[in-house]
Design a protein that fits this description.
3-stranded mixed beta sheet, 3 strands, 8% strand, GMP Synthetase, Chain A, domain 3, flat, mainly alpha
């Protein structure tokens, strides 16, 4: 009886309806996945997301936004490097300002400058290379009371910085022992005061400022000089010379006279 019921069930036609969507596993069937699926494959979170054309390429967009246009590094690598450079640059700028202000850590300085001039050196910026091995330090020397001596003082201060670069780098390495390496320092001088003056002049011109014209000055006539002019003749006597005294007739006539010419009879 039991076997007969099993045989009847096998003879009855039946239809199997699949209610679950068919998905392809790319790990098991890589070739079939490539040939059958045209869009980038990803496991859908829901049926609505699968049917939405805007979300079908979200995985590809996420991959490109994370790794860049075909690059293996993250798109945040550039910003991370810039932040790291800014942090190291801030440390270099702070430590250099302390070293220049104190001046005690600078060794082997055969020709030191005055303490007052050394303290006038300001560290404007420290630009660090991506490998953290080079530091381009921008400095500015403050102006003193005497403008005539400022030019010479600024040259002496910058020459001292260039001459003592190795000693300053050694002092910087002692301050930055917590880091792996200390960058090589290169000093570049800028004139902030001159830049501020130019900005102020541009602001004045934009507001309608006009420079005084130096050529509008009125020249006073010296009448006294005109009265002192005295005409002298050959014998040294003072007076005036008549125009007839120097006339000479080159045609053989008498001195001071022109020969008479008859214009009517002349052909």
């Amino acid at each position: 009886m039991r076997y007969s019921s099993i045989i009847q069930l096998l003879l009855v036609p039946c239809t199997i309806v699949s209610v679950t969507p068919f998905t392809i596993n790319p790990r098991k069937s890589k070739s079939s996945f490539v040939t059958s699926v045209r869009t980038p494959y990803r496991y859908p979170r829901s049926t609505e997301e699968l049917n939405n054309p805007r979300t079908r390429f979200s995985s590809l967009e996420m991959a490109y936004s994370k790794y860049g246009n075909g690059r293996s590094s993250s798109r945040y690598a550039a910003s991370d490097r810039s932040k790291r450079q800014e942090r190291v640059g801030h440390v270099v700028r702070t430590e250099l300002a302390t070293i220049l202000h104190k001046g005690t850590l600078i060794k082997n300085d055969d020709d030191p400058i005055e303490d007052e001039l050394r303290r006038r050196i300001n560290i404007i910026n420290a630009d660090i290379s991506p490998d953290l091995r080079q530091a381009r330090v921008t400095v500015s020397i403050m102006a003193g009371k005497d403008r005539k001596e400022d030019i010479i003082a600024k040259r002496r201060a910058y020459a001292w910085l260039v001459r003592c670069t190795k000693s300053i780098r050694h002092a910087l390495a002692q301050k930055m022992k917590h880091m792996k390496a200390s960058p090589d320092v290169t000093f570049v001088q800028v004139d902030v005061g001159a830049a501020v003056d130019v900005m102020q002049l541009i602001e004045k011109v934009s507001k309608g400022y006009k420079r005084d014209d130096l050529f509008d000055m009125e020249l006073e006539d010296d009448d006294e000089d005109d009265d002192e002019w005295v005409d002298e003749i050959e014998d040294g006597e003072e007076g005036t010379k008549s125009e007839d005294d120097d006339w000479v007739d080159f045609d053989g006539g008498e001195e001071g006279e022109f020969p008479e010419v008859d214009m009517e009879n002349e052909t």
